[in-house]
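Hypothesis: this fold can be encoded by more than one sequence.
Test: take the structure tokens below, design a sequence, compare later.
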């Protein structure tokens, strides 16, 4: 598919979801196309000691993300690349656009692990207008080769010290970057202005990085951060919120 940008996402990454919402917001105003592609945080961190590097719920969450990407890979194979836009939107809506169930008895790790189950996935597929039988791919690791190839493709464009999302501007010759990482969704005018600034940086051939590790919790119901408010600021180093001791 020839697209104006390739957007590499892991469906369980909240910052990828926020950035994708912004991309869709600008896409509604501008005439450009997006190819939604896969990158797996679980595969990126396959050789990482999760207990030492991440909060305790991360391994369950990243594993669920890989399982969801298997479903997406099968959907793409059987229903075309255009199916991924609505499937990713359905994933993100179910994961991030509902307030946390504070009355429930599940731990955070259990909440994240559930995202990789048929109980969770079948309503997502229904929302996306896709067959429920695609949920069979959750346990089918034959799709991992394709997901790994696409993950490696994304990292080859940026280098390995990155997270999600990765956006490839003007592929195949254009440059790719991790981010932008945003915690709040801008209004329509600001969204377009931000897009123009990001594209301007991307078009300069010598530009490599603009970064800070301080981030607000994303402005999403799943984090208890409502529109018009700012989430708590945290220091994300090495791709997680776990603080060095």
């Amino acid at each position: 598919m020839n697209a104006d940008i390739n957007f590499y996402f892991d469906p369980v990454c909240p910052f990828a979801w926020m950035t994708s919402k912004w991309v869709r917001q600008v896409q509604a105003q501008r005439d450009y196309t997006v190819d939604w592609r896969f990158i797996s945080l679980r595969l990126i961190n396959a050789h990482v000691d999760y207990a030492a590097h991440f909060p305790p719920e991360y391994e369950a969450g990243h594993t669920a993300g890989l399982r969801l990407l298997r479903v997406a890979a099968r959907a793409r194979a059987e229903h075309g690349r255009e199916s991924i836009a609505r499937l990713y939107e359905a994933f993100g809506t179910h994961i991030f656009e509902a307030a946390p169930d504070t009355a429930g008895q599940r731990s955070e790790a259990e909440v994240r692990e559930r995202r990789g189950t048929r109980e969770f996935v079948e309503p997502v597929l229904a929302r996306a207008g896709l067959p429920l039988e695609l949920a069979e791919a959750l346990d089918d690791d034959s799709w991992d080769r394709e997901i790994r190839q696409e993950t490696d493709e994304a990292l080859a464009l940026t280098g390995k010290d990155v997270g999600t999302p990765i956006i490839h501007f003007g592929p195949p010759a254009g440059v790719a970057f991790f981010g932008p990482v945003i915690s709040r969704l801008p209004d329509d005018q600001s969204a377009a202005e931000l897009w123009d600034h990001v594209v301007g940086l991307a078009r300069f051939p010598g530009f490599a990085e603009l970064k800070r590790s301080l981030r607000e919790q994303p402005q999403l119901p799943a984090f208890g951060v409502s529109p018009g408010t700012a989430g708590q600021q945290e220091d994300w180093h090495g791709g997680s919120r776990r603080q060095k001791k």
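The radius of gyration is 17 Å. DSSP finds nine helices and six strands in the chain.
Hypothesis status: open.
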